[in-house]
Amino acid sequence: MTAKALFALSLLTSTAFAAPMNIEEQRYTNAVTELADVTGRYQPQIEQLLGRYRADSNELTVTHKVAEDGKNLWQRAVNDVRSGHFDDRSLYWDRLAARIALKQQQPSFNMVQWQRDILLTSFEKASRGFSDVKFDPNSHVRILLTGFDPFQLDKNIGQSNPSGVAALALDGMTFQLGSKQVQIETVMIPVRFQDFDDGLIESLLTPYYRDSSVDMILTVSMGRDNFDLEHFPGRNRSAAATDNLQILTGASQTQPLPPHLNGKVLHGPEFVEFSLPYQVMQQAPGPYVINDNRNVVTTNGKVNATSLSRLDDSVSVQGSGGGYLSNEISYRAVLLGQLMGSNIPVGHIHTPRIAGYDEAAIKAIVSQLEGMIAAGAATL
């Protein structure tokens, strides 16, 4: 067994005070075996995190230090992808490895459970880039982009997500459009219903809408055969698919259900309309067709909506983005902007899907996505 594998398995050593592992973390053992070339890539960053954590005797600063190490993990993965290693899976699995270790081990004081929960949340967000969104004062056009974790891992534990690779590849990127400097900052979103119900998307986006501190918000996920610009997100969940914690919402095509926000049903119209400059974005060159997708499903059947008013008095089953979290992130993002009176263009892009890991396809997807973003930025 390699030193990397031994280190990975050592993280799983149980202790008397260990917190239980969730479903995502439990998959890690299989990932170590089946994805030996993927897991452990960021072992030095995890070792540094654990070394500082185990030696820390200051309960007032330990969470801050762990968050710093989470941010370092994110930045290492960003640099890795931007240097040509187009793979999002190492960050996903090594983040879980770090979480497992933080659950299994103690700092140099007796940490109680509520402290550990706060520490894990701080690490989680930092390792997803949430604390790394910093726009250059010299940037004229500021774009916030979200990607998603790999998902459907019980079908294929080696699955990658092009939207996650794009988030890593584009984080901090700047380019010139005439006299304007464009900057992209990104974060990675978990594929977990509970995080959405707990208000993750609203807490992320509220400051940017409130302060008008970005010029465009793009949510991105893996979808169908080509690129789809999702014109009409729907309110309800309907996909009979589990999230990465194997959670089923109970929603289905015949029983669509609304999501929640902080313990209450999320109220809003059945459908909303995105505000991206889709006509110019569709012209971005590349191997994939870029669709302006207006196809939705209501309780009365399928509709190709020519306008939002065409959907008046309809009950949503699927938005143009489907009935899963990719549709939901766009619905929440658009709705929040409307509630806050924002004019920031916002909308969702579905990338072409890939089976497992396909480096050539991922590079082509990311390259064409860059062109779409540049085309959209040119309108701002």
From TrEMBL:
Keyword match Signal: yes
Origin: domain of life: Bacteria
Gene3D superfamilies with a match to the protein in the record: Peptidase C15, pyroglutamyl peptidase I-like
Keywords: Signal
Signal peptide per UniProt: 1-18
Listed InterPro entries: Peptidase_C15-like_sf (IPR036440)
Protein name, as recorded: Pyrrolidone-carboxylate peptidase (N-terminal pyroglutamyl peptidase)
Organism annotation: Ferrimonas lipolytica
